[in-house]
Structures are given as structure tokens and as C-alpha cells.
Amino acid sequence: MHDANASRAAGESLPLTASAVLVNQVGLHARPSVKLTQCAKRFAAKVELALAPDGPWTDAKSPVKVMRVKAPQGATLHFRITGPDGEAALAAMLALVNDGFGET
Length: 104
Hints:
By secondary structure, the chain is an alpha+beta fold. It has three helices and four strands; from the N terminus they run E-H-E-E-H-E-H.
């Protein structure tokens, strides 16, 4: 039996993925975009988001790129995170979105 992951380079890992629904009234506008990018920048992991599970993916550490997503209230944000502190980064992203960015 062949293990597909056996040939992966050391330190390379599969991305962690999860999603959360935007509950704050105005969606992903300027203030939540900045909060999201500030949170993402606290981690070494690569943090990306998308409105669909298969992308296109946006760098969550770029406020301009995150604001371009223009996600309305009720939209589902999908996260894809790769890196050494990926689990903590994913938990922080989900908590921020689920909390309505402190606006609800």
C-alpha cells in the first residue's frame, strides 16, 4: 500500500480548512477586514480566505485584498491555513468571525 504523504518533504503539511458565516450586520467591510488581517498577522502560518471552498483564495494578511472580497452578512468565509501555528491561527480566525468581529 502506498502512503501518499510519505513522499512529502519534511515540514510540509496539508492545509487546515474550516468555514464560518459572517454574522455582523454589514459583512466584511473596512473595520472587520482590518481586524481580520491584524489577527492573521499574529501568526507565522499562511492564512487565506475565500467565498467558495475551492477559491479563489485571498491573502488574509493583506487588508486591501481582504476588503476586495466584499463579503456580505450571511456569506460563508472559507479559511485555508498552512504553517507551524496553523491550528491556533484557524481557531483565532473562526472565533473572530463567529464573534461578529466584536460588532454584534
